[in-house]
């Protein structure tokens, strides 16, 4: 992949995460005038379209690729963006993949919280510090709620959308730490270098989101 400054100014490189965000992201970008299409069975990770290269990444890597300028822009959840600590522009709230990041315990659990399991250690550290709770944080990768069911942790910090996972596992939300939705993120230098491509895309995405 060529560095941002040496790619043609009229070309856009976009970073999208595999997983639940991809399909809605592609649909939204298509409505905004970028007709992208990723064949379901494809194992390719880079897709070329007229004037656009699409990179398929893990969620956590989208802010990294955008901040370091390998991608000009990307789409990622606010949760993952905050956790990354990356200094990228965030010009549009795309209003899908809505969920909240919450402190979760077993129903009725009492007693001090010594250990918290989560995929979001930075956000959790900031939250616990703000609460004056000196708990240990255990970084996990998935099935986070199991940590509190099995005694690995006294609480977890994880995403809640429908609440189905909480109900199925006898868990309850004790506090909402943040509300998340998918965001368009843009590299700071690209915003100037590729202004002629990015400005209309941002404007169009804002309109499409308003239309609902
Ligand atoms: N249950 C949910 N409902 C709605 N949005 C969600 C839900 N879970 C996660 N999200 C949002 O969608 C984003 C992507 O979720 P996804 O499940 O694809 O990631 P993941 O598979 O957990 O991540 P990875 O495997 O890359 O660590 C999350 O960062 C969050 O913003
Ligand atoms: O409130 P709900 O609608 O039940 O959604 C919340 C669940 O969705 C996510 O998990 P995901 O399905 O991504 O699985 P994971 O454990 O691999 O992260 C999240 O981590 C919760 O477990």
Layout: helices, strands, pairs:
Elements: E1 12-17, H1 22-31, E2 46-49, E3 52-57, H2 62-67, E4 73-77, H3 78-84, E5 89-93, E6 99-106, E7 115-118, H4 121-131, E8 136-139, H5 146-150, E9 155-160, H6 164-168, E10 171-180, E11 182-186, H7 188-193, H8 195-211
Parallel strand pairs: 1-3, 1-4, 7-8, 7-9
Antiparallel strand pairs: 2-3, 4-11, 5-11, 6-9, 6-10
Key terms:
alpha/beta, D-Maltodextrin-Binding Protein, domain 2, 5-stranded mixed beta sheet, 8 helices, 11 strands, 32% helix, elongated, binds adenosine-5'-triphosphate, binds 1-O-pyrophosphono-5-O-phosphono-alpha-D-ribofuranose, cytoplasm, amino-acid biosynthesis, ATP_PRibTrfase_HisG_short
Describe this entry's structure for a reader.
The protein is α/β, with parallel strands linked by helices and 212 residues long. It has 2 domains: 3-97 and 181-211, D-Maltodextrin-Binding Protein, domain 2; 99-179, Periplasmic binding protein-like II (D-Maltodextrin-Binding Protein, domain 2, 3-Layer(aba) Sandwich), CATH 3.40.190.10. Helix content is 32%, strand content 30%. The protein has 8 helices and 11 strands. It has helices spanning 22-31, 62-67, 78-84, 121-131, 146-150, 164-168, 188-193, 195-211, and strands at residues 12-17, 46-49, 52-57, 73-77, 89-93, 99-106, 115-118, 136-139, 155-160, 171-180, 182-186. Strand 7, helix 4 and strand 8 form a beta-alpha-beta unit. The longest helix has 17 residues, at 195-211. The two termini are 35 Å apart. The model has no long low-confidence stretch (mean pLDDT 95). Bound molecules: adenosine-5'-triphosphate (ATP) and 1-O-pyrophosphono-5-O-phosphono-alpha-D-ribofuranose. GO terms for molecular function: ATP binding; ATP phosphoribosyltransferase activity. It comes from Deinococcus ficus. It catalyses: 1-(5-phospho-beta-D-ribosyl)-ATP + diphosphate = 5-phospho-alpha-D-ribose 1-diphosphate + ATP.
């Amino acid at each position: 992949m060529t560095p941002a400054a040496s790619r043609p100014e009229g070309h856009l490189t976009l970073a999208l995460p595999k997983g639940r965000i991809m399909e809605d992201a592609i649909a939204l970008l298509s409505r905004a005038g970028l007709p992208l299409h990723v064949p379901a069975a494809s194992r390719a990770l880079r897709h070329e379209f007229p004037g656009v290269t699409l990179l398929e990444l893990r969620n956590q890597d989208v802010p990294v690729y955008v901040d370091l300028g390998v991608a000009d822009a990307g789409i990622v959840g606010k949760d993952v963006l905050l956790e990354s600590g990356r200094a990228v522009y965030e010009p549009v709230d795309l209003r899908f993949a809505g969920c909240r990041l919450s402190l979760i315990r077993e129903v009725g659990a009492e007693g001090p919280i010594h250990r918290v399991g989560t995929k979001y250690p930075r956000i959790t550290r900031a939250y616990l510090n703000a609460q004056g709770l000196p708990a240990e944080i255990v970084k996990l990768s998935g099935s986070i709620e199991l940590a509190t069911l099995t005694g690995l942790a006294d609480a977890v910090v994880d995403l809640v959308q429908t609440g189905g996972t909480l109900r199925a596992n006898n868990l309850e939300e004790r506090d909402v730490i943040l509300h998340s939705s998918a965001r368009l993120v843009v590299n700071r230098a690209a915003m100037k270098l590729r202004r002629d491509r990015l400005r209309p895309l941002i404007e169009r995405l804002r309109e499409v989101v308003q239309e609902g």
